[in-house]
Amino acid sequence: MPDIFETNALAYEDAKRTVAEFEDTTIADDFKIRAVERLIKTDPIAALYDALDAADLASHEAGPGFLDQLETFCKLATNVTIDWDVKSETNRILRFLISVASDLYYDARVAPPETGINPARYRRPLERLANEIWSNELLFAHRLQDASDFKIAFSANCQSSDGSWPILYTYKADGGIDTTSPLIAPRQTKTEAQRLANAANRCLKLTAPQVAAIINGETQTSEAA
Known about the structure:
Layout: H1 9-22, H2 29-42, H3 44-58, H4 65-78, H5 89-110, H6 120-133, H7 135-146, E1 153-156, E2 167-170, E3 178-180, H8 190-203, H9 208-215
Antiparallel strand pairs: 1-2, 2-3
C-alpha cells in the first residue's frame, strides 16, 4: 500500500496548525468546532490515526493524558462520515478505526484501576496499519537496528533546505550522532515525518520514555529492553 497520508499532507498540516492555535484560547467554541471539522474533512484517516497514536504515546506517562487523548480519538471517530456501501481502501481503513473507537473509551473508563485497559487494544491497530502503509520503511528500521550495537530511536529532523522533513535515527550514547538514512525517504511535513518515526519506534518495541532516553544519550545496548 502506498503512503496514504501523502496526498493531503500539506492541507492536513495547515488544518492541524489551526486546531493547535485555537486550543486553550478564549476564541468562541464555534471556531474550534469548525477547525476540528475541517481537520477531519481534510484527512479523516490521518486525524484518527494521529489521535490514537497520541493516546499510545501518552499511555507510558502518569496522569490523565492517556484517557484525554483516547477520548479525543473516540470523539473524532463519531464525527467521521463515510458511505458504508462504498468499497474503497479509504473506507476500509476508516471502518476499521471507527470500530476500534466504538467501545474503547467506554472500556477504558470502566476498567478496574489496578488493571486498566489492555494496551493491545489501542497499540495493535496502530501496528497493523503501520505495517500496511510503511512496510518497507519499517523493514529498514529493523535493519538499521540490527546493524547497531546500541538501541536506536527515530525522530523528525528539522526542515531541510529543499523543504522536506528528514527522519533521523540516533543513539547519543558514547558519542553517537543523529543520522539520516537514504533507506527512509524524507516527508513533506513534520507531522508526516514524526508519524513515521513514531511507527518505527513502536515496531522496535520502544516506549516514549525509552525513545527520549536514547535521544538524550542514555546508554542502552541493542539487547536492552
